[in-house]
Amino acid sequence: xxxxxxxxxxxxxxxxxxxxxxxxxxxxxxxxxxxxxxxxxxxxxxxxxxxxxxxxxxxxxxxxxxxxxxxxxxxxxxxxxxxxxxxxxxxxxxxxxxxxxxxxxxxxxxxxxxxxxxxxxxxxxxxxxxxxxxxxxxxxxxxxxxxxxxxxxxxxxxxxxxxxxxxxxxxxxxxxxxxxxxxxxxxxxxxxxxxxxxxxxxxxxxxxxxxxxxxxxxxxxxxxxxxxxxxxxxxxxxxxxxxxxxxxxxxxxxxxxxxxxxxxxxxxxxxxxxxxxxxxxxxxxxxxxxxxxxxxxxxxxxxxxxxxxxxxxxxxxxxxxxxxxxxxxxxxxxxxxxxxxxxxxxxxxxxxxxxxxxxxxxxxxxxxxxxxxxxxxxxxxxxxxxxxxxxxxxxxxxxxxxxxxxxxxxxxxxxxxxxxxxxxxxx
Length: 427
Known about the structure:
Order of helices and strands: HHHHHHHHHHHHHHHHEEHHHHH
Number of helices: 21
Distance between the termini: 86 Å
Shape: globular
Strand content: under 5%
Radius of gyration: 29 Å
């Protein structure tokens, strides 16, 4: 039975086989060899028991005239369960990408096939199956993990990142546009319905984050390569961990980092929660434990705070829902803070430029209004203006005269600006 499955390609998936006719290309030969040991063998390890279980059941059912017929049906079911990697079963768009499509398809086959199914359903007159399908995926992964939502969120993040420096006025208008933020703010995770909407039904029932398992995102717009070919990131992690350990073999933090990065997910969770190098020196007094970033234990800053339930879940190689929620909110806040800093700096540069060059009261007032919204304290304004004047190469007397002429109208504009409640702090 097993030999039949191997001979007929049921449990065998060797990448780049369809390129065997291109000749002795060393690059493809190397990729094929590497893929065979890192992708094909593990894939075969998963497919064999699934196929043999179905084949045995169907053969004993007595519903097939021959055992080969039962095995053929078992092979079809196996492809449905584990996803067929055969060239004939893939969407045509994958083939057009060549070897890159092969590699990307290995990691995103279920989601790519799901999108292909949606495109087929979308052409049908009856839209009920499509609506049912989309609803079921949203229930399993949460709104943020349903079809195209991850890509849309990523596109908005990229746009906000661009405008934070290119045009802070536009950034100020769009900075709060986010489906994920809207859901987390308006549907609190303390309620069961909030958990379902944000993280999906399996996560809500178990209080463990399964949203990533059902996430329908194909492309991480902000980090496309790491999302399409995660194995490259893994190789990079392994190489970095080994190199760091080789450079400092007696360093406990490097030992801990290597142990974490070289371990499979479940073992990594045990390593993270048991090795003292992953815990901060100063711990909270409420019974919880503060952990460092496991990817960089040399950094002493706290990364995540866990209670006993969070630790138990992490030891099983998973992440509790409360921990996932806290991490997600922290990531959103860090992104916001980073973009706000860039936008504030860009608005300040624009304000200083308009003061030094235009002296246009109306334009200065608009720039002051924008800057004061991004930085209500306006603590850096006076320092930045004086720095700009000094950089112009003026003498001390010219500096004092220009400072008086420049700051006076600006302070006047600021006092008239309705967003500023207490401008005295910059005088």
